[in-house]
Amino acid sequence: MSFDQDGTGGASDTRKGDASRNARRARNCRILGMGGYLPGQVLSNAELAQAFDVTDDWIFSRTGIRERRILEPGRDTSDMAFEAARAALKNAAVPAGEITHILLGSCAPDGLVPNTACTLARKLGLTGLMAMDFNVACSGFLYGLYLARAILLLEPHAKILLVTAEAMSRICNPERRDVRILFGDGAGAAVVAAETGAGPRVEDVLLSADGTHGEILAANGGGSRSAYAAATQPVGEDYFLRMNGREVFKHAVYSMVQICRRILADNGLTVDDVDLFLPHQANARIIDAVGERLGVPEAKTHRYIEYCGNTSGASIPLALEDALRQDRLPSGGRALLASFGAGFTWGAALLRG
Fold this sequence. Notes:
Layout (H helix, E strand, L loop, with lengths): L17 H9 L3 E8 L3 E4 H8 L3 H8 L3 E4 L6 H16 L8 E5 L10 H8 L6 E5 L5 H15 L4 E9 L9 H4 L4 E9 L7 E9 L7 E2 L23 E2 L1 H22 L9 E4 L4 H11 L20 H11 L8 E8 L3 E8 L1
Parallel strand pairs: 4-5, 4-6, 11-12
Antiparallel strand pairs: 1-7, 2-3, 6-7, 8-13, 9-10, 12-13
Helix pairs in contact: 2-3, 4-5, 8-9
């Protein structure tokens, strides 16, 4: 691999000068409440082991996953987003009518048009507010936090519903073992506002991207590169997610480690100042490798992958909601979040309890 010394892989990032950095730190941004949703249908290792002529232990030893949740037929990504959003609004004690913006991250939305954020707004009974989709795959929640902070700079009284929802089973070829054993479906949501009170405060967010390696993890079907064909033509491989697992592993570990080191250094912190480490729940080997290279004790690392699989952009909010429910972030404590996704995109964030 070829990377610059700052670890960005030649890509620009969101850190541009001390003035803008200090301005972002000065603005209060807090997660008022969180919610998550996992479908009821379970796909176990036993079922996959039989389909691919391997064992349950073989899958678990390579992924750290025992089962993943699958969105039921007849239900869409927006249905999961709706359930997660309702849970987040309830947890935040914020009526849906007070939401001013909806940000929805997904690489497996309901469709190309209309955007899924508008569909979610309709299901919540909301009109007249900003509603937009964005797609940075597994980095969705951290990119969404950055967007939410930017909105709050312009509109300090905004209340933002940030949702990341992924129906990964709909874009995974059921005959490809490398993706099918990893990915599951789910949604996570947060209500974000510039308010004081309960809920983690977002101290900083740092993002980066590098498009030169995009084909290592991609699904092109339905876009201009591989447009839809007549109904009589079978769906081709381009319509499903394809992945070079070995290369993704190398890039994911390196990029998450470097951006975590950088955000800590930018804020005058070290790993010793971190009370909770919450990396993207891609697979156990990536989680272990990133934690080991950063020097984060295993006891501080939160895992949520075993019973839901890699839920792409939903993985960090699902894991964060679970960690907060378990009181793993003490009052005044600090959480370090890290993500890596297709594009490539990656990021890190600091939260203060």
